[in-house]
Amino acid sequence: MEDGLRVATVWRLWITTFCVFQLMKSVAGLDYIVGANFVTGGLWTNEPGPSGTNLTLVHQYELWAKSVNISVGDTLIFNYDDAHTVVLVSTQEMLDSCNYTTYEDVTSHKPPTKYTVKSVQPLYFVCSVENHCQDGQKVAITSISGGSTPPVVSPSPSASSEGRSLQSVRGFRCDLGLYGARESEFQ
């Protein structure tokens, strides 16, 4: 009986550790390639979009920004060649007019540039290379959520004493392997 209890304890510890690592991955944030699926090659570029479309580059970046759910802690990945920059301007007006006389240069020394979202404030990115912003190489990310909510322990969907689930708001679910145990054993 003692060996069976030891095996069950080790099993529970292993499952709990696995679940914690999975939660850490989901809370760390997601990666988003700027322009993916909307701009040719998913690149940070000033080239027009896929042939056969009537969408302007500005519109393609707008569609991309509306298609993603960016949260604090997520990473924006700008894939490009050395002919581009990634600069952060502070207002929508600066983005619209391509006025980047004052900006924060977030360009990496070597592509790609990875930018981690730090707050819920809107982000406005442009390329500062001559005429690239005017060609449409700019994107506004105006809808940013506060990030992941810490994980919570809640009863399993059956609401019985068969076990517990560890969940996060981002939809992660990991059963702890406590099935068959009485609820009072774990309180």
UniProtKB/TrEMBL annotation:
InterPro entries: Cupredoxin, Phytocyanin-like, Phytocyanin_dom. Residues 30-145 form the Phytocyanin domain. Residues 144-165 have a biased composition (Low complexity). Residues 144-167 are annotated as: Disordered. This is Phytocyanin domain-containing protein. It comes from Riccia sorocarpa.
